[in-house]
Amino acid sequence: MMTHLEFEKPVAELEARIAELREAAGSDGEVNIAKELARLEKKSTGQLASIYASLTPWQKTQVARHPKRPHFRDFVAHAFSDFMPLGGDRAYGDDQAIMGGLATLDGRRVMLIGHEKGNDTESRIRHNFGMGKPEGYRKAIRLMEMADRFGLPVVTLVDTSGAFPGIEAEERGQAEAIARSTEACLALGVPMVATIVGEGGSGGAVALASAERVLMFEHAVYSVISPEGCASILWRTAEKAPLAAEAMKVTAQDLMGLGVIDRIVPEPVGVPHRDPQSAISSLAAVIGEELDALAKLKPDALRQKREERFLAIGEALG
User: Fold this and answer.
1) C-beta atoms surrounding 32 within 10 Å
2) Which of 81, 95, 103, 307 is in Cβ range 3.0-4.6 Å of 135 for a Cys bridge?
3) HEC string of the chain?
4) Averaging pLDDT over each range in 30-39, 45-54, 236-245, which range is the top one?
5) Architecture in CATH for domain 61-317
6) Cα 151 to the chain's mean position, in Å?
7) pLDDT at 28 (0 to 100)
8) pLDDT of residue 250
9) Which of 2-6, 122-126, 276-280 has the lowest mean pLDDT?
10) Is the pLDDT of residue 40 over 90?
11) 287 touches 103 (CB < 8 A)
12) 258: buried, middle or exposed (CB in 10 Å: 19+, 13-18, 0-12)?
């Protein structure tokens, strides 16, 4: 069953009507409702396109958090082959919020790393809602270093509200692990392509997104803090989250203008949770293009490209 967001209610009503008509047609073969169905479907598609063409930053935030949006496992299943998961940080344990391993993307062998939020209550708890712990970021460092050693490009899929803020994570060195993961990204001598596929929250996202090419889904969001967190700090109430989202420039379109990301990946009409296969296929093709372009660069050139990229962001904003 489709989970509709608040601003999708007009479309939800039309889709409910369409479902009722189809059910009526199925129960009575003499009822001919083809014209009415076609009219309603056309109206629904048009209304959906109109809504998604003018989403506010807060609405985009809600879309980025949609429970049916594709997650790491979905991308592995539908875009990558020969996935061999690699676990553990060789120091404390394995963090299921951050997954990774060897994979093949259209004939290209890569190291794939990303956040997994889970898709039901049990899996969300197991994956800690995509909030990585120190051992998760240290696992990512281990896999990036392995990729560097064997000359494999690194692909990351970022989707997290932020790193896990629990006391046990702080005790195990959360800040240090995030900093070293960011450092590992910047030090790679192999190509790295990062994509914000849902939420890109705080240092928990940057730790896997400090690449020379940063892509972003059309309706994903990327920010230093959640709109609710920002609103709670500035206005002492999370109810101002829509206003905070507007001011923070969290959308792909805003971030493209600021030079924070390099390319926006279009989403299907009605976004990935309605047509996940198309969204996944589209992203896979774009990542392949980026990897092919970066394959020509030598290690020193890749590192210099990353350094120049992130220094340029500072110049643009300051």
Assistant:
1) 10
2) 95
3) CCCCCHHHHHHHHHHHHHHHHHHHHHHCCCCCCHHHHHHHHHHHHHHHHHHHCCCCHHHHHHHHCCCCCCCHHHHHHHHCEEEEECCCCCCCCCCCCEEEEEEEECCEEEEEEEECCCCCHHHHHHCHHHCCCHHHHHHHHHHHHHHHHHCCCEEEEEEECCCCCCHHHHHCCHHHHHHHHHHHHHHCCCCEEEEEEEEEEHHHHHCCCCCCEEEEECCCEEECCCHHHHHHHHCCCHHHHHHHHHHHCCEHHHHHHHCCCCEEECCCCCCCCCCHHHHHHHHHHHHHHHHHHHCCCCHHHHHHHHHHHHHHHHHHHC
4) 236-245
5) Alpha-Beta Complex (3.90)
6) 25
7) 57
8) 96
9) 2-6
10) no
11) no
12) exposed
Phi, psi of 188 (to 5 degrees): -60, 140
pLDDT at 312 over 90: no
Tell me how far CA of residue 199 lies from CA of 75, 226, 242, in angstroms.
15, 9, 16
Residues 6+ apart with CB under 8 A from 208: 98, 113, 114, 115, 140, 156, 158, 181, 185, 194
Among left, alpha and beta (phi > 0; psi -120 to 50; other), residue 294 is alpha
Q: How far apart are CA 262 and CA 252, in angstroms?
A: 10
Q: What is the mean pLDDT of residues 213-220?
A: 96
Tokens of 114: 């990303």
Chain position carrying tokens 């391993």: 101
**Cα distance from N-terminal residue to C-terminal residue, the chain:** 46
8 A C-beta contact, residue 44 and residue 18: yes
* pLDDT score, position 32: 64
pLDDT above 90 for 118 = yes
User: Do residues 15 and 42 make contact, with C-beta atoms less than 8 angstroms apart?
Assistant: no
